[in-house]
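Office hours follow-up: a student asked to see two folded examples consecutively, so here they are.
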Amino acid sequence: MTASDTRPDGIPLPGRSGIRPRDRRIVEAIALVCAVSALLVLQWKDEDGNVRKNLKPPEKVTTVAEGQIGELVGAQWKIYGRATGEPLGAKPQGDVTELRLKLAVRPSDAASAKAVGSYGLGFRLHDGDGHEWSATALKTGEPRAGVAMGFTVRGTVPRAKADELELEIQAPKTARKPGGAQPSLRFSH
């Protein structure tokens, strides 16, 4: 047996420089904790940037006063009718109703007519409390440049909120410029 085998960890060996083995293990543990923490922070920041960039683009909402005309994807939009009725189905559903909005749309050129006729348009109904309901739209014809056409937007909503809901139309994702905001049009009521 040598002297290095019989000496406990806390006593430095003669002729050896540096820190004691116990202190070295403590420093290594602290360095490991710091390295893992830094790695987790970097990974979180990287994922946060990807989510912001790819999943949920910022929105640019243009609000249109009641009875006014708004512009989205190069077309003019206006609500000219609002009605409620029973939702489609075999039996009445109590506290819900179907909100029907009539829209007039006039694309200004061929590109806006293509955007208006695309499947990427999104329709949502909003209340003042932050709730939203999806809606579907039916076109009355094929969009053509300079020619007005109609949309009927329908959504099943709570009966008590039907008169205060606002319509929001989101442009197709193809209309979004790289790095830009997702344009949408909100009709206040």
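And the second, which I mentioned at the end of office hours:
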Amino acid sequence: MKTALIICDNEVLNSIYSVNLKTYTELNLIFESSLDKALIHIEDPDVAIDVLVTMASIDGEDTALLAYHNCIENDRDIPSIVIGEGDLIPDENHIVKNQFDIPGIIQNIFKSLGMNPKEVLAVITEDLYEMPIRLFFPFKKAFCDTYYMLENNGQSAPTKIFDKESDVWPKVREFLDQGVSNLLIPAKERFAFTKKVTQLLIESMEQITPETPQQESLDFVEQSIDAVAEQLFEDQEVTKEVIQLSQMCMDTMEEVIEDVPDLKSLLKDLAALKSGFLYSHSIIAGYVSTHILDNVEWGGDAHKEKLKFVLYFHDMYLVQIYKKHPDLMYEDKLIFDPNITEDEKEIIINHASEAADAIRRYPGCPLGADVIIMQHHGTPNGQGFATSYKDDISPLAKVLIIAEAFTEEIYQKIENKVPVNVEEIMEKLKERFTKHTYKKIINTLANIKI
């Protein structure tokens, strides 16, 4: 079997190259992340290398040029394929300018080795379904063939990154670290996949103890919200597994919010987890609303229990929107984004009403939780976003509205790299929420721990 030495420091690319080169070339593959590590193989005459595939440069170093010269110095006549562009790439090398041009890379390998070309990257004809990347975290082995949508010369095409039963870790975390939000699986596997991930998450949540690190607990809850969202509004009947996982997550959210010393600690952990905006803002709003209920005169444990349920479910209809547009943030601005389709605008406008209708069939739904969910953007019927906030909505809905508004102000400060000043935020909120009942809630934020 012939051997290819690949020099690339991007683990997402390495994962893509690995699956496709194994599938289409049947080469033995050696991956190294730097020239120094690759030189160990190049300088060892006992290591057979039939083709070198290297990035043009890594960390500002002319990797392709230096690798080429080292091959000459070690009397190694190894054909080279360079990925990327640069002024110092030797003419003798084959060049593939686009790092995602998998067919181009493979065809050049065939050409370099004098092999008969195979049909490269046959078109995938089966329907694929996007899944949030965190839903792959509970698996040690891939549940099914898994794909990533590659952009190549302005066109999108799915390419396989995991074969069924292949190792998922640590590559799946590296994809997330590179900014990948979703992976794709065959659509026919969708429900079996979500059922299995629900089971795995329940097993993981059962292992949580008071000693479990906060980050780990937050990570499990985010994975679980994605899993529940994939099932809750699709099936007419809420399964006992979904109910069990939801309750475990609500309890964990409550424990994290109660135990966290301050808002800064929570934000730090969510940032470290690279949590999506929809989840992060719900967790922060949970912290803020708990503080409000501890300080407002009529607040109590029963209200906290109800709001815990609401916070978990209130934005689940938006999961599909943020799954497709992971870089978007504030809900009331979503419909003005040019990338949002008309159908998606309808979902955004009606998400509170739809979630309230759906949650009514959830066994054990707290009395009035559906009303709070419906009114959490200030409209009595759950449609659209209020521009002026009146007194015709539930007091707990007002708490959630202020908590989310305060949360969004914090995120805007962070985004603009401006220090968080609670007094300034309170004044701004009072200008927006002019009714006395809202201002009383805002006043409770004066002593919140940032």
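Two things to take away from it. The longest strand covers residues 155-162. The chain has a mean pLDDT of 87.
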